[in-house]
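Side project, low priority. Logging it here so it doesn't get lost.
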Amino acid sequence: MNKLYQAADKAINHALKIRSSDKFLLITDEPKIEIAEALAFWAKKTGAEVTTYLMTETLRPITAATSLFLEMARRATVMAYVLDARYQEKPFRSTMVGMGMKPQRRICMMPGLTREMMERLVNIDFQRLNRFTRKVMAALNNADDVLIENAAGTKIAFSVKGRKWHNDNGDISRKGRHGNLPAGECYTAPVEETFSGKLVIGLIDDKLGRGTMEFRKGRLVKWSGSGVTEIVKSIGSDPTGRIIGEFGVGTNPGAKVCPNMLEAEKAFGTVHFAIGDSYGVGRNKSKFHFDALVEKVTIRAKGKLLARNGRFLI
């Protein structure tokens, strides 16, 4: 059994914990077909009903699900999204997340996953990852004085008081659960009106590069950089797409800062902020959700220094 199939075994049997009673819908495309084949191999062995959906290049970018696709998704109890990552497809991706978080099903999102990432970051010790992620969550839970800075010029202050934290620790086995593979972050939504300051980002969403984002009371009011400009252009006049929706902290020691947001946002020493949908944690609902990565951060909360220049102190 090669490393890809070992990782797929971990994804199906340890993360998603697919059972014979499940109806598994696997959405993929040509660039990710070998990953999908490995996942389908192990899913079939569980005795579950397995259906694959191949997205052809002639239909890309897809921004809305067809009625037939939605019917398949409604009948599924487990879904996995294994597509090449394209920022234009965020509305479609948001539809998938929303459906996957229904009480009767669960979803694993893997946009942009590569074979190398699968082999290196999915076949890991999830219990160890969970322990450290819980430690970070405890240090930030209910803080009303979070401050994020870095040497590049980031300085953003906000509260997370009263907001629920989510632990993306690789356990996607419970109904209503949404998670990533590779895993390794904790996240919540800032209290919107407290969120003010400047972000200097190294990456926004799917392979779009450096820029700045300035916020006032939870709303994006000023920006620079070709990547951020492209994102704002794609949002258009929809005001929900410019409101802060997420604050996340990377907790996977094996993840690297790279042009792939799925991995980069899990890396030690990084935090990420998303504009758009808050996935039910905050007040904002939107068809958009765009992540922005901040590197080598210093984190202060509850009067304590939690990280300095990208190194955890907890």
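Brief comment: The first strand starts at residue 23 and ends at 29.
Revisit when time allows.
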